Amino acid sequence: MVKVRAARAAEAEALTGLVMRSKAHWGYDAAFLAACAPELRIRPDEVTARRIVVAEDPLGAVLGVASLEGAAPLATLGLLFVEPSAIGTGVGRLLYRDVLRRAVEQGVHRLVIDSDPHATGFYRAMGAVAVPAAGQGRGSGPAAPVAGRSGSLVRFEAAPAPLADWARAWTGGGRAVHVGNVAEFNAQFGDSSLDREQSAAHHYACLAAFYSPLPSALVLPRAVPAGWTDLVGRQLGWTGVEVYDGLVERGSGLADAVRARPALAARLTGAGEPLVPWGLTRPFGLLTGRPWRSAELRYESKAAAHGLFERILADGGHPGIVLPSQVRAATRWAAARLLAARAGAGKATVLKSEHGVGGSGTTVVTAGQVRAAGGARAVLRRLPRGPLLVEEFVDGPTDPGGVRDLTYDGFVDRGGAVHEVGAALMDVVEGAYRGATVGPGAVPAWAEKPLLAFGAAVGRELAASGYRGWFDVDFVVDAEGRLAPTETNLRLTGPAIAFMVAARLDALRGAGHLVRIADRVELGARLPEAQVDELCADLARACAEIGAVFVPAIPTGAFEPAPWMGVLVAAHRPETLDAAEALVRSGAAAVGAMFDAPEAAAR
Q: In angstroms, what CA-CA distances link 497 with 80, 344, 554, 572?
């Protein structure tokens, strides 16, 4: 395993030779190399002052060198060169990430990189952002010369950042065991919209890879491709992550399946690392020794959450927040009467089950749909059985491009303190959640303050009720630009996953990442596992070329009869984020072309 250590003064001459070989790799002529040599020489007396480190293999061979130069808050990546034989093996990435880590420790806020043109792809892939007006300098790169033949350099900058405070508070700043008990959480509410085998929940359990910024182990119900965890680990800088999968192929009961394997249970609970679930359940409490209090989850109920919102708003202090009316129908016939009355007045209605996930159990019905169906009773016959909540539909902004669906994420720690994670823009179509975007500017400035204030108020009420764990509050925006809270979720969520990945990437690549999670990206064909791995690797490379990050979030959907994947994309700029998503969707859809072409040729 390659490791990074401080360079020694006695190595200065050998390191200079490495730098020159690395530079010569690109085919520069002898005269140019000779002209560069004085500037690139490493002198024994400056090794410490320039904070030079080396990457060393297990046999002690030096594979690369890097330096962090200058004083906080501004520093420079003075050197980053890799032995030609080690180019493409990850040494440059290891050294660059080490420089960012040390920059954080030393209080550096801006890291300047004057890159040779040959190295621009590397720095773009590492998350550095190109900026105007590079001056002359040494020029750095994993195998780059001082400068191109024209002498021009490309300037990049990165913003070294520590792991976010909330992320440190979530798991103590260390590694954690992630338990993908999505089906187990859903099953305790008897959601009638879920299939008996919990197929959808088992796919979603793949998001266990991202329950914290730094996992030590993943516990998954279904088997996942080995290539998937390898790629995710490379993208997010993880090493040594253990994977325990295939524990529950059908139905719920992941925590019980772990408890039925005493050696595994002891391994997971005995390492002193926190166990992070999708949501709290009685079996998870038994596994971890955590006292189980079912009342903690009472606000997972949409009716209970509505009552909570009413109490908060009754105290005042939340301008810009309005609450849609909601009635819990005693019977189906009562629901039909309420729906018919609203339809008769030309109003749309939201029909909700008491519980639901990802928009399941929530149906928006217009007056026209009620008439077309032949009446309110006919509409209700098509919905899942169980109690119904009849809620006022909130008309959205008149601007078709206006913001509609937002969410607040936070958590209550074991001591009862509420931690704000942030706000996200959700992608919701006809009541069904499709994905979310987090990061700087994702949520309009006008909405952020009231949203965060109300979300924090909900968190305080949850803490007072005894709840401990992650939660979110979902909102819709009305026609007047006000926020209407619609429900709470007392568990991890899709936006939560995006926040986790953003925190990890900010610490790994520099602050300011926008992250988008898309639950479903259609594949053009069903592929064997090896080809799915190849597709994901190709998409990762293509995104890196434009300065974005691609992470396959849900790989198991690729093996369904109608194949799909859940994905994460990240970038520092909105236009790059949009371009990455478009690239991923088009690349995923295009995989069917390899099968269509031979058929067309045969015809």
A: 33, 42, 12, 18
For residues 415-419, average pLDDT: 97
Alpha-carbon distances, residue 324 vs 133, 391, 431 (angstroms)? 53, 7, 15
Q: What is the pLDDT of residues 133-182, one digit of tens each?
A: 644 444 455 433 334 433 478 999 999 999 999 999 999 989 999 999 99
Q: What angle do CA 105, 41, 88 make, to 5 degrees?
A: 65
pTM greater than the 0.90 cutoff: yes
Of 279, 232, 239, 285, the closest CA to residue 258 belongs to 285
Q: How far apart are the C-alpha atoms of 156 and 125, rounded to whole Å?
A: 12
Q: Which residues on adjacent β-strands are paired with residue 327?
A: 390
Q: What is the three-class DSSP state of 72?
A: coil
Cα–Cα distance for residue pair 214/500, rounded to 1 Å: 9
> How far apart are the C-alpha atoms of 356 and 427, rounded to whole Å?
17
Supply 570's token pair.
């990240």
- Rounded to an integer, what distance in angstroms lies between the CA atom of residue 488 and that of residue 493? 11
d(CA 50, CA 62): 18
Reduce the DSSP state of residue 537 to 3 states and report it. helix
- Here the tokens at position 202 are 């088992």
Secondary structure (3-state) at 151 = coil
Phi, psi (degrees; rounded to nearest 5) at 427: -105, 105
> Which residues, other chains included, contact 203 with Cβ-Cβ below 8 Å and sequence gap of 6+?
222, 554, 556, 557, 566
Where is 222: in which H helix or E strand?
none
Does residue 46 contact residue 79 with C-beta atoms inside 8 Å?
Answer: no
Sign of the alpha-carbon torsion through 244, 247, 249, 255: negative
Is residue 274 over pLDDT 70?
Answer: yes
